[in-house]
Structure formats: C-alpha cells, structure tokens
Design goal:
Number of strands: 5
Number of helices: 8
Distance between the termini: 13 Å
Order of helices and strands: HHEEEEEHHHHHH
Strand order of the largest sheet: 1-2-3-4-5
Mean pLDDT: 76
Low-confidence stretches: 127-160, 261-280
C-alpha cells in the first residue's frame, strides 16, 4: 500500500523499525487489539511483537506510547513466550514495576534490550555497533550510498546491501517536499557517483571478470554483462533531467494528521503490510 495513512504510520514507527532493519530484521506494521504494533520476523521463525499495552487502549498517537512492550512468540510453539522488554506503567499503585518502566516510551533502551536478548539467542542476522547503540540513517539524504560494514557471512552481507538499496526508497516515501524527492533522485542519477553510474561500472567489471575464464561461456557472459552496463547507462541518460523536473513540481499537499483515537475502525483493514513489496516490508 502507498497511501498517506500508511506513509504516516511508517514515519511514526521509524525510530523502532529503522534500527531493527539495520540489523537485518524484517519489520511489518499490524493492527493489534486496540492500536498498531510492529511485528519483527526472526531467523528461527519466531517473531517479536513490539507495541504499547493493548488493554486498556490508550489515546496516545501511534508510535508514541507511554511505554513499550516487546514479546517473543512462535506460531507453532505456544510454550515459547517471553517478555523481552516492558516499560509500560503499572496498572495499579501497588503493582510491581519492571526496571524498564523508568524509560517510558524511549526507543533506545528498547532496541538495546532487543539487541542483548537476540544476541544471547544467536538470532541477530547482523552485528550491532560496538557500543550496543542502534545504528541510524543520516537525517538528510547524501550523494553516496552508505558503506556496508564488514560482515563475516554471505547472508549478512546480502542483507546489508539490500538495506542500502532500499533506504533511498524508504526516504522517498517519507519525503515532505518535491525538493527532498529531487535530492534523492540526485543520489541515484548523479552521473559520476550516483547509484546507476556505480551499477554500470559494477556490471562492466563483472564482464571483465567473466572474460578471465577464457572459455566460450565466459565470453558470452561478458557480452551479456556489458549489454546490461550499457542499458543502465542509457537509462541514466534518459533520466538525466528527472531531478530538475521533480524539483519544479507543485509542492506536496500535507497529509492529514492521524487521529489519536479513531472514532471507528480504520478505513484500511488491520493486517500486516505485504512483505513482498520492498517499500513496505522493512
């Protein structure tokens, strides 16, 4: 889905989904019992549910609760249920509070607790930073793709590269002006260091590498890769004025604000975003 509602919903939860996606974890946003939650798929087929307390419902806006509760569950093993983090306030004056309650709705302690537990379980696809703090995207788009950290396993490296390619799309979905969208186009179309230019060089280099085999199939593959490089460069030439055209467009109309407590069920069905669409599965 690509509606103002979902874009705003993703924006409100970016402080949770972004650091988790940087660790190679796929995130979806679903509607729980009374408000929206983040569902995080884990490598062992279990999952995390991250959200505010569902009962009683709160009038706070999505993504800004009084406290977070993160639980780990498994669809085929009902015995697997654990509370990873709980900073929600206690229900009554005499009820015991977990130590996390002092953090309230802060996201950083939540992410650090998830990091710690998943590292214990061996369920972090990517290593976190040495300090244990969550990685963050730059606040404004840059002209260069983020450098992928050194990851020992092939699957981990692939996750980093997919994220690096997906990040501009996510930023574009949340762009609040055509000027910001144009800056992201520059990141892709810049003729020297843009993503398309780098992809062209990559396929050209791959073609040269294929030739080193000195076999018929190696030469055939090198021709195919050279054709791909040429097509990518041609695409960059066709779109070379797209950045200026985007910047000249009429300013975007601000999306309506989400209500704190919907008077009726949301118009969109309360289901997970389709994981097959890279713009919504993080």
């Amino acid at each position: 889905m690509d509606t103002p509602w979902w874009q705003e919903l993703w924006r409100r939860h970016a402080h949770i989904t972004t650091p988790l996606r940087e660790r190679g974890l796929a995130c979806d946003i679903e509607f729980g019992l009374s408000t929206y939650i983040v569902r995080v798929s884990l490598p062992d087929d279990s999952y995390l549910i991250i959200g505010p307390p569902q009962e009683p419902s709160s009038d706070r806006p999505p993504g800004d609760p009084e406290g977070w509760i993160a639980t780990r569950e498994h669809p085929d093993d009902q015995a697997l249920f654990e509370v990873v983090y709980d900073s929600a306030p206690s229900d009554g004056p005499g009820a015991p509070q977990r130590p996390e309650a002092r953090h309230g709705g802060s996201a950083q302690p939540l992410i650090e607790a998830i990091d710690h537990r998943l590292a214990q379980l061996g369920l972090l696809p990517l290593a976190s930073s040495p300090t244990g703090n969550p990685h963050t995207l730059p606040a404004t788009p840059t002209h260069h793709a983020p450098k992928a950290p050194d990851i020992p396993d092939t699957a981990g490296r692939a996750s980093v590269y997919v994220y690096a390619l997906r990040a501009p799309t996510d930023q574009l979905n949340g762009a609040e002006s055509h000027a910001a969208a144009a800056a992201l186009l520059h990141q892709i179309l810049e003729p020297t260091d843009g993503l398309l230019a780098q992809l062209g060089e990559f396929f050209e280099a791959a073609g040269e590498k294929a030739k080193e085999a000195e076999e018929d199939d190696g030469f055939d593959l090198s021709y195919d890769l050279a054709d791909a490089a040429a097509e990518i460069r041609n695409l960059a030439e066709v779109l070379h004025v797209a950045e200026d055209r985007m910047r000249a467009l009429t300013p975007l109309v601000p999306a309506p604000r989400l209500p704190s407590t919907p008077a009726r069920p949301p118009s969109l069905p309360p289901r997970a975003l389709p994981s097959a669409q890279p713009r919504h599965t993080r």
